[in-house]
């Protein structure tokens, strides 16, 4: 056993040495293509190299139009055709330098997967991770608890899929603006949030964690939903009320080459490549070759993969699991409902107040992005009605009037397409509001639910 451990350690140190001697080399080519900037990345190959590069490009807010991947052997070579969000080529002088810097020190963060439920605090904020059954009003209850416990949410992201919810939030102490590191206080925060997540209907175990993980926030959300088995279609609830096309995923073995070939076709959107590569990597698969084309409304991806043990997919059950997991990875970030954008002076309790107004008007949040830029809160919410249907125009106007029409805006494309629903259709808004308020009352977080 000692010999084995020593051998593994030596292999790991040798890999680190090779990487230090051959750091990633990034070149930017604006001459070869009329439509896009070509970014070429060459480096010594190591597990996770592809995800690191894709994440670096995604974090720089670049749109990947095409990509050609090759990492079969000791060397990793990728070519990405990228533009900005307006479809323009990149002409900044420091693009290659920024990508190179993001690939250097970040490499360490991908080696560890933080699943700890222990209590740890960062210097600036404390990380809160939540998973549980989704329901109308849940986000309002979570923010109400944090506000009552004198916590300020400086950033957060919330995803929902297949009746499950995952959230990563960064909080500070309301009084000091610093991370919360008191073990007793953190234990109390975890316990009260767990009560909210479980409610009285969660058939699976909800989970709360307080940590200081170095893993990328969006990658962590994928990991949390994967661990929560949101891809298990047999265990999902009634599903979405909208009529959206399902992604087409096929998985077949290429016997003569010893690969499994994954083909994927779906409507294109930003960060699609990150979502699929992240999922394959965290499922312990290695991409040896790949082709990505997403220059129109539809995206096409093809991967030649093997498990980390070097074997292709070996059973029908494993094949089906890969298909379901990739479908889930694509669908998690698809935003259902109307996009509401809130920009105002930040203050403690702002999120609690805004999501309470959503709940009181029968709105359900399907996805949320919360950020703080200096003294400004910049938040995005995607909302449907409590049954998952589009929201009535008059309901949106009522919410905007209550929150403030100058600070809460509707994305025009979504707003113009939002149908006014039949006024006689039964609404669950008051029922969910009553249950939510009663639940918070029982926790001692509000004085009355009448």
Automatic annotation (TrEMBL):
<feature type="domain" description="ACT">
    <location>
        <begin position="38"/>
        <end position="118"/>
    </location>
</feature>
<keyword id="KW-0677">Repeat</keyword>
<dbReference type="Pfam" id="PF24931">
    <property type="entry name" value="ACT_ACR9_3rd"/>
</dbReference>
<dbReference type="Pfam" id="PF01842">
    <property type="entry name" value="ACT"/>
</dbReference>
<dbReference type="InterPro" id="IPR040217">
    <property type="entry name" value="ACR1-12"/>
</dbReference>
<feature type="domain" description="ACT">
    <location>
        <begin position="127"/>
        <end position="204"/>
    </location>
</feature>
<protein>
    <recommendedName>
        <fullName>ACT domain-containing protein ACR</fullName>
    </recommendedName>
</protein>
<comment type="function">
    <text>Binds amino acids.</text>
</comment>
<dbReference type="InterPro" id="IPR002912">
    <property type="entry name" value="ACT_dom"/>
</dbReference>
<dbReference type="GO" id="GO:0016597">
    <property type="term" value="F:amino acid binding"/>
</dbReference>
<dbReference type="InterPro" id="IPR045865">
    <property type="entry name" value="ACT-like_dom_sf"/>
</dbReference>
<feature type="domain" description="ACT">
    <location>
        <begin position="339"/>
        <end position="418"/>
    </location>
</feature>
């Amino acid at each position: 056993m000692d010999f084995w451990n020593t051998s593994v350690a030596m292999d790991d140190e040798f890999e680190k040495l090779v990487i230090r001697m051959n750091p990633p080399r990034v070149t930017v080519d604006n001459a070869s293509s009329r439509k896009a900037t070509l970014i070429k990345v060459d480096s010594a190959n190591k597990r996770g190299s592809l995800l690191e590069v894709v994440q670096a490009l995604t974090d720089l807010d670049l749109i990947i139009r095409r990509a050609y991947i090759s990492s079969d052997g000791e060397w990793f070579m990728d070519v990405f055709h990228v533009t900005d969000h307006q479809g323009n080529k990149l002409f900044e002088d420091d693009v290659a330098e920024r990508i190179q810097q993001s690939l250097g020190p970040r490499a360490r963060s991908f080696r560890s997967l933080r699943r700890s439920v222990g209590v740890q605090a960062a210097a600036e904020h404390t990380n809160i991770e939540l998973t549980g059954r989704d329901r109308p009003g849940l986000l309002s209850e979570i923010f109400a608890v944090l506000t009552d416990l004198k916590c300020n949410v400086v950033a957060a992201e919330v995803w929902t899929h297949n009746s499950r919810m995952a959230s990563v939030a960064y909080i500070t102490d309301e009084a000091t603006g610093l991370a919360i590191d008191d073990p007793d206080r953190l234990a109390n925060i975890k316990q009260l949030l767990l009560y909210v997540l479980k409610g009285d209907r969660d058939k699976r175990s909800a989970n709360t964690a307080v940590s200081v993980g170095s893993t990328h926030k969006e990658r962590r959300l994928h990991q949390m939903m994967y661990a929560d088995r949101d891809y298990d279609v047999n265990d999902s609830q009634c599903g979405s009320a909208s009529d959206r096309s399902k992604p087409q995923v096929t998985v077949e073995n290429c016997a003569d080459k010893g690969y499994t070939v994954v083909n994927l076709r779906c409507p294109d959107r930003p960060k699609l490549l990150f979502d699929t590569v992240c999922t394959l990597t965290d499922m312990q698969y290695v991409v040896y070759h790949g082709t990505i084309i997403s220059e129109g409304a539809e995206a096409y991806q093809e991967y030649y993969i093997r498990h980390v043990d070097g074997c292709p997919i070996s059973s029908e059950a494993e094949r089906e699991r890969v298909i379901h997991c990739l479908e889930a990875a694509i669908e998690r970030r698809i935003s259902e409902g109307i996009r509401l954008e809130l920009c105002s002076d930040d203050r403690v309790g702002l999120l609690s107040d805004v999501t309470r107004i959503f709940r009181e008007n029968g709105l359900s949040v399907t996805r949320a992005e919360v950020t703080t830029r200096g003294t400004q809160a910049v938040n995005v919410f995607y909302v449907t009605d409590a049954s998952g249907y589009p929201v009535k125009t008059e309901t949106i106007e009522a919410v905007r009037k209550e929150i403030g029409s100058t600070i809460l805006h509707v994305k025009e494309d979504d707003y113009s397409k939002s149908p006014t629903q039949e006024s006689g259709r039964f609404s669950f808004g008051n029922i969910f509001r009553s249950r939510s308020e009663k639940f918070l009352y029982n926790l001692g977080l509000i004085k009355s639910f009448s």
